[in-house]
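My main concern about presentation is that the manuscript never shows what a single data entry looks like. In essence, backbone conformation is discretised, so a fold becomes a row of integers matching the chain in length. An entry of this sort, consisting of the sequence and the corresponding backbone structure tokens, reads as follows:
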Amino acid sequence: MVVVANRLPVAFNEKTEEWETSPGGLVSALTPILQGVTGSWVGWSGIPDHPIEPFDHSGIRNIPIDLSQALYEEFYVGFCNGTLWPLYHSAVRPPEFHRHWWRPYREVNQLFAMAAANEIGPDDIAWVQDYQLQLVPQMLREMGKGHRIGFYLHIPFPPVELFTTMPWRRQVVEGLLGADVVAFQSSQSRSNFLDAVVAVSGTAGTEDAVTWDGREIHLQVSPIGIDAASIALAAQSEDVLAMAKKVRSRLGDPRVIILGVDRLDYTKGIDQRIRSLQTLLENRKDLVGKVSFVQVAVPSREDVIAYQEIRDDIEGLVGRVNGEFARVGRPPIHYLYRSLPIDELLAHYKAADIMLVTPLRDGMNLVAKEYVATRSDDTGVLVLSEFAGAAEVLTDATLVNPYDLDGMAASLAGVIDGRPDLPGESMAALRESVATQDVFWWAERCLSVLDQ
């Protein structure tokens, strides 16, 4: 099997001058699979203007792609993050359509396809990952490598009326249709893609498949999972449990702890979340000083001006809400602009009575599943945006509309008044779902269709 992804499964540690396995569900799921076969992983090293020869690491053949700094910026910062990211997230922010970004996108996809083609044998599976590489499937097929090609989209696919605004809509659709299987996080994304295929190519299809260029392309819904068993076990360690008690103590042992953990991105709805908390405290003066909201904002794309502005806006909003509702030693919002070590993150999950996951649009959102996996005693409440892909599978969560501040505040009030510290059937059902449809189930589900 040859995995083709934007990044390699390893990162170079400049201090030790060694390659180290990267964290993340995709790497965790595919590493044992690739170790059990003759496996290669094609991806960018993360180091611009630095050619690197193929190398082996942890039983996997790594095929690094060399990108110049200029090409990286136009491809990734430009087309991927300026055009595709906002467009695919339902144009939460207006996408930018620049002709000078399209050429680098195609050029980088060609580099990945050529590198992958050199690795693919007659009986091999090629599995292409995510929105950065949507042209690769068709490029591989044109190179005569169309044996078994899969594509998985980790982010949402947008409604057809938005997608068709992109000038290169046909090229993207035909690029994806080069695959034998195109898989999505949710049934909504699959339906949107089918609508786009019909609109752009005029080809009709069913919910499960579309015929194009004389081939049948299977359309699959396969929500990605987490390593739930490992997270559940780690969350029960003595160190994590002790740290969770310290988290609660340092917050002043409030009646309710609400937690948000997100990459700092405009799609995550962090500002709406804070305003909903502000609305809650305005409406419920009895909760002032009794509710602590911890927002962990993981730095993201710090070199992009738009993301610098997002940080400034959110930090200003935090200051205003704290200024209005803080009691001495008890601000209602504790804002952490950093990533947390895994043990500390698990401790915050364990300490939180309510997990607030309210993206404006998300492919899946694994934070929601991580929180559920840590709740071994079935306590706690997951408040989840109905616009996250996770809402399709975590149906026992408390679903909210993140655009409705009054509605979110009312939902939080209802959860708080309903005693989230007591065990409930909903968390038990959520844990069973997360444990059953874990990351290994996901990989097997995707690959079983390709392996036929």
Observations:
- The chain is about 45% helix and 20% strand.
